[in-house]
Automatic annotation (TrEMBL):
Keyword Signal: no
Taxon lineage: Bacteria, Bacillati, Bacillota, Bacilli, Bacillales
Protein name in the entry: Deoxyribose-phosphate aldolase
Main localisation: cytoplasm
GO molecular-function terms, A-Z: deoxyribose-phosphate aldolase activity
PANTHER family: DEOXYRIBOSE-PHOSPHATE ALDOLASE
Active site: D90, K155, K184
Gene3D superfamilies, alphabetized: Aldolase class I
Organism encoding this protein: Sporosarcina newyorkensis
Record InterPro entries: Aldolase_TIM, DeoC, DeoC/FbaB/LacD_aldolase, DeoC_typeI
Length: 224
């Protein structure tokens, strides 16, 4: 059985995050044996150095938080992050393409990011949907595309949209993504009770700045 701490991507993505805060994030992640720290690309090299030999991986974000970058730029950004030592990539899909019903482009983007694994099979690629802007039908369609492409994870939210994870969205993602694509819930998950509800739905990872509160059963803050 997977322990609670193994579900947690210990997250700090605030624009104003300082080096000292990132160092504290890594210290906490190492002490509590979280799955990863999730940070902006600028801080990847620092985290890689701080977490060397701890078993905690470094996750970073691409096309964040709007997903509106050109595909070539997202791919380049991801490649640079991997070169810097990131082992997990959380990229934001092109939300406008979804709203334009251009699912052919969305699939092309998924495939381009999934191909990162051709040279680095150990890298984990997660696609952020930003479910607060999507209809149930769009969430279903995106989950099916992720299954067809063979992404490692699909993820609910950036934490910067108008809303975060919902039980309804996660259920749709789990039901439509197949057995090989895992689901990461993120955005607004602050308590053990909230975590447990998502875990029961079948998520494999939770992105949160409240990991310590979740594992200790205390009330978290209102952050990501």
């Amino acid at each position: 059985m997977t322990a609670i701490h193994e579900y947690i991507d210990h997250t700090l993505l605030k624009a104003e995050a300082t080096k000292e805060q990132i160092e504290q994030l890594c210290k906490e992640a190492s002490e509590h044996h979280f799955a990863t720290v999730c940070v902006n690309p600028f801080y990847v090299p620092i985290c890689v150095d701080l977490l060397k030999d701890t078993g905690v991986k470094v996750c970073t974000v691409v096309g964040f938080p709007l997903g509106a970058n050109k595909l070539s730029i997202k791919r380049l950004e991801a490649e640079q992050a991997i070169e810097d030592g990131a082992e997990e990539i959380d990229y934001v899909l092109n939300i406008s393409a979804v709203k334009n019903k251009d699912f052919l482009f969305v699939k092309e983007e998924m495939e381009a990011l999934a191909r990162l694994k051709e040279e680095r099979p150990d890298v984990v690629v997660k696609c952020i949907f930003e479910v607060c802007y999507l209809t149930p039908a769009e969430i279903e369609e995106l989950s099916i595309l992720a299954k067809e492409v063979g992404l490692d994870f699909i993820k609910t939210s950036t934490g910067f949209g108008s809303g975060g994870a919902t039980l309804e969205a996660v259920q749709l993602m789990v039901e439509n993504s197949g057995e090989h694509v895992r689901v990461k819930a993120s955005g607004g998950i602050r308590t053990r009770d909230q975590f447990q509800k998502y875990k029961e739905l079948g998520v494999s990872r939770v992105g949160t700045s409240n990991g310590i509160a979740i594992i200790s059963g205390t009330q978290g803050s209102i952050n990501y």
